[in-house]
Amino acid sequence: MTHLGETIRMLRIEQNMSQSQLAQTAGVARSYVSMIESGARTNIGTQTLERMAAALGLHAGAILSRVGVAFSSLEPLELSPEVRRLAERIDALPPGAHERAITLVDSVVRGLHAAHREQAHAKAIGEMGDGLS
């Protein structure tokens, strides 16, 4: 089975479209299209997928069905109002800034997760030490 990026690449080539043309029409950076097609980027937002599909003359469901995902089976993602506002603000950025913002937010969230894991680990070690005394 092909992954989503391979499918997008095949569809783009069938349309005689360059990565730059697809990126411009979908409102994303060419490097983002390249990462998706190569499989380096696998988490594609619904709105981005819909824009890329529209640029290819398709619906997102048609692309997903080619990779074995039933569009109707996807559960809607519940986002808090704060996350929704942040996502809307990031989506409104120009393509290059959009990708940098996503990278920055991803880095911050990864750092917060790592800090949380370290705190939980330190707490567990402290609790184990308390039980030894």
SSE topology:
Layout: H1 4-14, H2 19-26, H3 30-38, H4 46-55, H5 60-66, H6 81-91, H7 95-132
Walk me through what this model shows.
15% of the residues are buried. The protein is elongated, with a radius of gyration of 20 Å. The protein folds into two domains: 4-73, 434 Repressor (Amino-terminal Domain); 81-132, no CATH class. The chain is built from seven helices and no strands. It has 133 residues and is mainly alpha-helical.
Question: What does the main sheet amount to?
Answer: none
Cα Rg: 20 Å
In the CATH scheme, the class of the largest domain would be: Mainly Alpha
* Overall outline: elongated
CATH superfamily of the largest domain: lambda repressor-like DNA-binding domains
Helix content: over 70%
Taking the alpha carbons of the first and last residues, their distance comes to 57 Å
Unreliable stretches covering 5 or more consecutive residues: none
Strand content: under 5%
Give me the count of strands.
0
Q: Total number of helical segments? A: 7
Average of pLDDT: 80
Indicate the structural class.
mainly alpha
Number of domains: 2
- What is the CATH fold-level name of the largest domain? 434 Repressor (Amino-terminal Domain)
CATH architecture of the largest domain: Orthogonal Bundle
H/E element order: HHHHHHH
